[in-house]
Amino acid sequence: MSRSLPPEVLQETFKYLSGNGEYRVKDLFSCALTNREWCNSVIPILWNQPFSYYKQSQLNSVIITFMASLDAPTKNQLKKNGIKEPSLMSTPAFDYPSFMRSLNYNGLRVSIRRWCFHTLANKPIKNDIPFYYNLLLRAFVKLLCERCNNLDTFLVETCMNPWYFSDSTTNLDGAHLFLCEPGIHSLIAPVKKMKFNANSNIHHYLNNTKNIQLSQSQAEKLAALMIVKNYLEYFQLVNCIRFTSVILNALQSQSHSIKELIFLNVNFFDCTTFKGWPSFKKLEKLKFLRCGGINEEFIENLVGASFPNIVEVTVNFQEKSQRLEGWASKINEKFLSRADE
């Protein structure tokens, strides 16, 4: 019976099996083993966001598959630097990187880190693990730039637990080497959803906190990703306590398409003069959650803007403002009254 079903019907069926965003990997793998037609429909689903939902044991296989997908010159370069191909690695049956639709960049980094720690920890100089990590990260980012042409969602954090770094500044630089990779703009261009986490809470892991906050240079690099975008619809900024204005100003370049904005634990102290709110004409949802750093000028610029398509507003600031809360309530009540008609 499966042979009579079009591939698109099979894919929709398997997507339904995946559940509400939480993929039942075991069930889908069983489907992939049924026959070739089912396999061709299931594999793209299993690989559309591998660094978001796989368990660690499965992520090791993902890393090995990515290594197998590298071109010969890159494999040779890794080998020269002490990273040999796993003994069980075989030629990939599919172009797995091309199936990726959502890239959890932090998930990618953590997966490489763990693989390096468990696989390369017996090297003579264990402190070289950060070196191996950076080699693999650059190789994988290059691979995605070349083979992943339909990315829809991009999630990135600016910091990560630096258990293997003696210098936290090096950690931040390594976290952003994807921004320096040729072709990164073509990888990001199709993206419609972005989430940036400045991860300011990383200071719990370090003694020297001045080096781990989002720097202006990093904010500008993150902003550069938005400027090259063509049609961003969803943007979420999390844990940003510095240089919010840099990102907000760049976000204005996507005001023609943005439908949903979410700010979580964001400080707007350097955005009080931002007057770009009126340009977000297609905005439907606007949420400020556990935010701060606003004043009367910020409030005036925000409530004075016209959002013709807005249906939901949430305001949760440290600074209480009856005017701001009243403005949000009015918008929400207006939408609810329309829904009841």
Structure explained in plain terms:
Residues 4-51 form the F-box domain. This is 11844_t:CDS:1. Pfam families: F-box-like (PF12937). The protein is an alpha/beta fold and 341 residues long. The protein has two domains: 1-46; 52-340, no CATH class. It is 45% helix and 12% strand. Strands 1-2-3-4-5-6-7 form a seven-stranded parallel sheet. Helix 12 (244-251) links the parallel strand 4 and strand 5 (260-266). Helix 1 crosses helix 3 and helix 7 packs across helix 8. The longest helix is centred in the middle third of the chain and has 19 residues, at 129-147. It is globular.
In short:
The chain is α/β, with parallel strands linked by helices and 341 residues long. It has helices at residues 7-17, 25-32, 36-46, 50-53, 56-69, 72-80, 105-120, 129-147, 168-175, 184-188, 216-227, 244-251, 296-303, 322-340, and strands at 102-104, 153-157, 193-197, 234-240, 260-266, 285-291, 312-317. The chain is built from 14 helices and seven strands.
Strand and helix map with partners:
Layout: H1 7-17, H2 25-32, H3 36-46, H4 50-53, H5 56-69, H6 72-80, E1 102-104, H7 105-120, H8 129-147, E2 153-157, H9 168-175, H10 184-188, E3 193-197, H11 216-227, E4 234-240, H12 244-251, E5 260-266, E6 285-291, H13 296-303, E7 312-317, H14 322-340
Parallel strand pairs: 1-2, 2-3, 3-4, 4-5, 5-6, 6-7
Number of helices: 14
Morphology: globular
Helices and strands: which structural class?
alpha/beta
How are the strands of the largest sheet arranged? 1-2-3-4-5-6-7
**Biggest β-sheet description:** 7 strands, parallel
Care to count the β-strands? 7
Write down the Rg.
Answer: 23 Å
Low-confidence runs: 160-175, 200-212
The overall number of domains is: 2
Q: In whole angstroms, how far apart are the ends? A: 46 Å
Note the beta-strand portion.
5-15%
Mean pLDDT: 80
The percent of residues in helical segments reads 40-55%
H and E order: HHHHHHEHHEHHEHEHEEHEH
